[in-house]
Design brief:
Distance between the termini: 17 Å
Radius of gyration: 23 Å
Strand content: over 45%
Strand order of the largest sheet: 1-3-4-7-8-11-12-15-16-21-22-23-26-28
Structural class: mainly beta
Shape: elongated
Helix content: under 10%
CATH class: Mainly Beta
Oligomer: single chain
Number of helices: 3
CATH topology: Porin
CATH architecture: Beta Barrel
Largest sheet: 14 strands, antiparallel, barrel
């Protein structure tokens, strides 16, 4: 018994180490967001329009609803990747045109998400039968936008990036068969091996000006999952979920550069929103052969504390080497609030005749999101507007004695199951007519479209 416990603890530590090794491939992008908030953190959820907070039955529950981790058996690990493409088109009121993108036709390396959960008895901690622990790494707020250095909006913006990580140590506790609770910390930070390792903003006014900065800030989350109805096998037929995410304040500190040379220290503050999620999921069909789930989630993001992104500069020298007194460059934002509606469905065939030892899932979803950004402070760095998103996906979960791709045994290294999820989503942003902007050059029509391919690998031990 002692040897088995030791092996499981070793496996748990090895997977945590793997997260650290793979993290360099996490390159944040703007995707599936209101403002610059990312909604997609797992291919199963993406295929269902991110309507997953009441289902929350794979390791991505760590993000979508930590209380759902109490449903997960053993040790479970998932790694996900997003392949992102899209474009931004601006038609100026004066007749000029500008095209931008999200760091190329397809982001490379792709942004990735990692989750690891462990039901504590699976680690040999049998005295804690109702506890599940987990850790994850996500990009809940991400931004990377590029425009030509010689465009008509170059004096306002040519590049913006916010490669922000969220490290999430999390716990879930099952109170009884009807109610579970969960919560954890959100450690927002930057890493030197991800992008430039800091948030940055550039413009071209004849010289290239850049402001950048980093910070580590602490937030938290709390959630519950209520299951009033189960079938004879004990599986949920009706779930209610609630999640609260506390917004942290990023107090960025860094440098102000001119043509790559530092001329001053710089500082700015980004107020992240408080987010509330309400979710309901029902299974009209759930038996030994088939499962059909329908879910509706509603989120409220309170961006109203994000009043400005004022840039504070220390004393610095101009190109003639004359000392200039430090100043604050006002950059009002005055964001509002935003509602997001997510609707998704999943149909599963359990060990169908054509694929014995496999569970096959078919998914589709819809998202309707508001933008919290007013016309007056609209900016090229966050070319946001109300959008409609449509998604579809499939999932495959292989149990022993099945083989993945007909080669790899699905119980390799002691695994109980290996899963692969795929999804595609298109985000159709409404054409935004900007007028009376604080930067008149930005007045005109803005069109944004995003294509997202999601891939997740899941291993259950």
């Amino acid at each position: 018994m002692t040897t088995m416990i030791s092996r499981r603890l070793t496996l748990f530590c090895l997977i945590i180490g793997l997260i650290g090794l793979i993290n360099p491939f996490m390159l944040p992008q703007t995707v599936g967001a209101e403002g610059f908030r990312v909604l997609d953190h797992g291919a199963s959820a993406t295929g269902q329009g991110a309507a997953f907070s009441a289902q929350a039955d794979d390791p991505s529950a760590l993000h979508y609803n930590p209380a759902g981790m109490a449903q997960l058996e053993g040790i479970q690990f998932s790694a996900g990747t997003l392949l992102i493409g899209g474009s931004i088109e601006f038609k100026s009121a004066s007749g000029g045109k500008v095209k931008g993108d999200f760091d190329g036709a397809v982001a490379n390396p792709p942004p990735s998400t990692f989750f690891l959960t462990a039901h504590l008895p699976a680690l040999g901690l049998h005295g804690l039968p109702n506890w599940t622990a987990g850790i994850g790494v996500t990009n809940p707020y991400a931004l990377r936008i590029d425009y030509p250095d010689n465009s008509l909006i170059a004096p306002v913006n040519t590049h913006a990036a916010l490669p922000l990580l969220d490290i999430k140590p999390t716990l879930a506790y099952k109170l009884n068969d009807y109610l579970s609770v969960g919560g954890g910390l959100d450690i927002y930070t930057f890493a030197s091996f991800i992008g430039e390792g800091h948030g940055e903003f550039r413009r071209n006014v004849g010289a290239t000006l850049e402001a950048n900065g980093t910070d580590t800030a602490l937030g938290f989350n709390a959630s519950l999952l209520l299951t009033p109805i189960r079938n004879e096998a004990g599986k949920p037929l009706l779930n209610f979920g609630f999640v609260y995410r506390n917004g942290a304040d990023l107090k960025l500190k860094g440098n102000f550069l001119a043509n790559g040379a530092k001329v001053a220290d710089a500082a700015a503050t980004i107020e992240l929103p408080d987010i509330y999620t309400w979710a309901i999921a029902g299974w009209p069909i759930r038996n030994a052969r088939h499962e059909w789930k329908i879910e509706v989630d509603v989120e409220y993001a309170d961006w109203t504390d994000f009043k400005d992104l004022d840039l504070q500069l220390s004393n610095f020298k101009d190109p003639t080497q004359q000392l200039i007194f430090g100043q604050t460059i006002p950059q009002p934002r005055n964001y509002g609030d935003a509602w997001v509606l997510m609707v998704g469905t999943e149909f599963k065939a359990l060990s169908p005749p054509a694929l014995p030892n496999w569970d096959v899932a078919f998914r589709t979803g819809y998202v309707r999101s508001e933008s919290p950004i007013p016309n007056k402070t609209f900016e090229p760095a966050v070319p946001d507007s109300d959008f409609n998103a449509f998604s579809a996906g499939v999932g495959f979960l292989c149990h022993a004695p099945g083989k993945l791709l007909g080669i790899l045994p699905c119980d390799i290294l002691g695994a109980k199951a290996i899963g692969l999820d795929l999804a595609y989503q298109v985000l159709l942003y409404q054409t935004r007519g900007v007028h009376n902007n604080q930067q008149p050059v930005l007045n005109g029509e803005w069109d944004t479209i995003l294509h997202v391919g999601a891939l997740s690998l899941r291993v259950n031990f």
